[in-house]
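Readers of this paper often ask what the protein records in our data store actually look like. The remainder of this section carries one protein's record, kept here as part of the documentation.

:::
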Amino acid sequence: MRGPIGELRAFIDAALLDPVEGQREDPPEARTRRRVVVALTFVVGSIVLAWTLRIPAGDPLFYPASITLAAVWGVGALASGPLHFGRGHTRGGERKARPIVQSLALGTLLLAIFLVGSLVVARIPVLREPVDDLLDHARFGSLPVVLAITMINGVVEELYFRGALYAALPSHAVTVTTVLYALTTIGSGIPLLVLAAAILGLVTALQRRVTGGILGPIITHVTWSTGMLLLLPPALELTR
């Protein structure tokens, strides 16, 4: 019988390290089309994302800009070719299933790590102030609308980065998608957002490699991003 450390290692192996068998890949004739669509989408999406993140809090332009961004990632991903949900390891390992509970647990674990880290960040003004500015969109705007936008963007970002882009790459897909995902956030001017994107991008890319699909990354991303939106502000308030 495994102890807590053994259970954690088994979970990490199953969720992030041990690929399931029977994953589907694009046929050769579909790869060129996917790569062209993916490249065009990346350029447009990066520009729209940089513009969106620089819109001041309280500006009503933030909402249509965020919807436009979601449309770019989502339409580009779906236009690139078929995407698959993928399958993950079950606890017993005797069969494969949709990676739902596993991804919820992974997203929650990631959220907990970030919230603990925020208690350190909150004590460093040069790091805290840009994060406060980003969270002002929820403070000064409509929280339900911002929450809905956060969830939608979490889904479409995974459709594109861990779906279309990952499938378009001939090799080193985990590394390339992680780096490109982090680079899209540089235009925000918020170093911690770039770091968060790199960590989240790496975790979801490893999930994509293990499961062969987008369902696990979507669940992990949405769990983390909605949790950060709702829990990070009160966590930061504890340190004031």
Summary: The longest strand covers residues 88-89.
